[in-house]
Structures are given as C-alpha cells and as structure tokens.
Amino acid sequence: MSQSSSVRRAARQRREYLYRKSIESQQSSTLDSKRKLIEASESGKSIPTEIRNDYDALKKTVDAEDVATEHGVKTIDDEYATLGLYDPRVCVTTSREPSSRLKQFSKEINLIVPNAQRINRGGYRVDELVNAAKEADFTDIIVLQETRGEPDGLVISHLPLGPTAFFSLSGTVLRHDIEGVGSMSEVYPHVLLDGFASKLGERIGNVLKAIFPVPKPDSKRVITFHNDNDFISMRHHMYAKSGMDKVALSEVGPRFEMRLYQLRLGTLEMKEAEMEYVLRPYQNTGKKRKVL
Questions:
Q1: What fold characterizes domain 90-289?
Q2: Could you report the per-residue pLDDT of 184-237, keeping only the tens digit for each?
C-alpha cells in the first residue's frame, strides 16, 4: 500500500471514530438527563429546571426502558476498549539532537516500561515517526523533551487514533542520582493510580496505564502515579515482605513530577485535531484549579 493511500485510510478511520465519539457524547448527555429525572421522581423532589422542557420525551423513554438500558450500558468503542487484553508495544524516543542527560533519561524510561523499544530520533519528522511506529505495530509513542539539558516534557500518543497527552516535567531525578538506589527487576510492574477522580482524571489514568502490560500477581515491582492538585508524582519502587504484616520499600527510580497541559483527540502529528483539554491561565484560580 502506498504512503498516500495509508494516510487517506488513517484520516478516514479518524473521521469515523470522531463521528462515533460525538454520538456517544450525545447519548451520554441524554443518559444524564434521564438519571436526573429518575432521581427526582424517586425522591419526590421537583424536576430540575434544565430538563423541564424535555420532560415529556424523557418520561416516555424512561417508562419504556428496562433495567439494563436504564443504567446505560456503553456499546460505542473507544481508544482503550482492548486495554488489558493485549500487551502494549511502546516506542520511546526523544526530541532531535538530545543531550547526554536526556539520552540517559530515555534509557531509564525504556527500562521501567516493559515491551518498550528505544529509537534514536535522528532526522525523522513527527509524521514520519508516527507512520513508522504504526507500520511497526507499536501501540504508543513516548517522546521526551528537554530545555538546556534538563528533561522538561513528556508526550504519550496512543496509536493508531490517539489521544495524545502532553505533560510538563519537573524535579526529574535519574536512577544514578538517587543515593543508595536498589537493583531493579524487569518483571511487569503493578501500576497504582491515586487521586484521578474526575472524568478527565480517569481519561489520563487510561493514558498512563495503557503503556504497561498486566503484571503477574506475585510481582514485587510497583509504579505509582499520585495526583495532588493536578501535579502527578511518578515513583518507582521494589518491595519485599519483612514480616507477617510489614513491607520494606526500596526506591529504584527514576522519579519526576508531571503536569498535564494538553490532551488532543488525535495522534502526535495531527495538529488540527480537536483539543479535549488545554491548561489555561484562568484555571489557576477558583473551582477550575483542580481538573484531575
């Protein structure tokens, strides 16, 4: 298949997916309205003002639904519908002309993500990089970025349709910078997600855990993503039981802080793709401060 035809096919698949996603969004809005109607009816409260104009149609639909339909079983597929069924294959690369520190950081990311393959960026453009990753059956691309030799950016793009999450990095500490760092096993790690309570938080949780395969129950390796005020702390530990009810943790690094600043409905090269989330200055105050 020629490159032009594969590009057209990818664009068509993306349009079809976005159409299904828009239908799912409409259904989700309708389901929310029906739930409000049911809750008001069961509690004896007045009908919420935002659904009063649609009361007759909603009441007729609710009366005709069975229990399964009432709870809104999700049938529209999404990008992570097969999450956990197959082991991911992750491509790890960097921005062009990386410093020695960024190269070392990419090696350590390659170690902590099972089934990852580190690739030298070279002169690849972004679109060439994404197309090559798709042809090689990678499920995700991780791109590491830097400023003046310090890692300050991490991008995770899910293939073949997206989404793409852009994170800023701070406080990066490499393995060899951690005093007394322990040895690291290469078994599949358990992934702990803490503090991802909102819908966007669940979405980012899927983005993060999708790059890790399902571990065996006896794995002694843990990778933690802890969200606190939209800053995500990444930590990597090995643990061992030291008694009947005691566990000894050993940090094996690396560690860093992440902050989401953009979530795009598309792959890395799709600059025209719809923005699902963008961090804006006015979100630093009030209720919009916490989004995850």
A1: Rossmann fold (3.40.50)
A2: 888 999 999 999 999 899 999 999 999 999 999 999 999 999 999 899 999 999
164 φ/ψ sector (left φ>0, alpha ψ -120 to 50, else beta): beta
Residue 158's CB is within 10 A of a number of other CB atoms, namely: 22
Chain center to CA of 144 = 16
163 contacts 263 by C-beta, under 8 angstroms: yes
DSSP 89-134: -EEEEESSS--HHHHHHHHHHHHHSTTEEE---TT--HHHHHHHHH
Assigned token pair, 227: 């969200």
Judge contact between 189 and 222, C-beta under 8 A: yes
What's the distance, CA 128 to chain centroid? 23
**pTM for the predicted model, two decimal places:** 0.76
Please give the Cα distance from 270 to 252 (Å, whole number).
36
| Angstrom distance (rounded) from CA 190 to CA 277 | 28
* CA atoms of 252 and 174, how far apart (whole Å): 9
What's the burial of 76, exposed, middle or buried (CB within 10 Å: 0-12/13-18/19+)? middle
- pLDDT band for 74, please (50, 70, 90 cuts): very low
What pLDDT score was predicted for residue 2? Answer: 56
Domain ranges within the chain, ordered by starting residue: 3-70, 90-289
Q: Tell me the β-bridge partners of 193.
A: 225
Cβ-count burial of 290 within 10 angstroms (0-12 exposed, 13-18 middle, 19+ buried)?
middle
Q: Report the C-alpha dihedral over residues 44, 48, 51, 54, rounded to 10 degrees.
A: 40
